[in-house]
Give the backbone structure.
Amino acid sequence: MVVRFRVVAVFMATSALLDFIDKDPFSRQDIIDAAMKEDACFKPTDIRNLLAYLLSNGDVARVARNQYIRCYNNIVEYEPVYSDEALKLITDVYNLFPYLNFQVWELSWFNEFLVHLVPMNIIFLDVGDSGCEFVYSALSEDYEGKLLLRPSDKEMQYYAKPDSIVIERMISESPVSSNNPYNPPIEKLIVELFANKTLAGLISRGDYAYMIEGMFIKYSVDQSKMFRYASRRNKKAELMNFLKENTNIRVVGG
């Protein structure tokens, strides 16, 4: 009980606590050192509770393993809104394959960060366990004319229509949102811009720098998670070089 009240006392002065840290990004040890300056009663064993508070309160954001930054602009976790069509798809896939590992995301989500909006929405259904063909067959009757199974550029050009569903294989270790197992986090969306050939044909690469900087400014991006997934897609070097050469983003997780 004594420890809880001591930690709460530190929580009440987070702005002063962070003033003791003169760098970005910073580590858990930097937070411990600052907390001990702010409150002589603080112990290193209290760091877990303090860090959890700082993260949940939006005072700091994790950008890599043991790397944190201040949140000057109310950076929050990315929580996109699904369209009705995507929500129906999630329900249908779950009802047919309750134990299947899958994720659903939408092209229209990128409009939040684009100047030139995408002309139509495309729904991506990433399926794990080599189940693309089974899912395609199971959904083909209810979604006739809307399903595209691992389409080529030509097939996208000729057959894609608003709210078409692109079924693709989900790469193992694909990052998962902490709030929704079907919803990929923003780190995956950034990597998909470079790794997903279908997506690359729908958004101009000239918009990438502005768009990705907007993602980093508005939302918490875990660079360790992002680069780990980029490695799985063989795109780590390309992504890292793009960020360094075309954006003002400080690369810390590579």
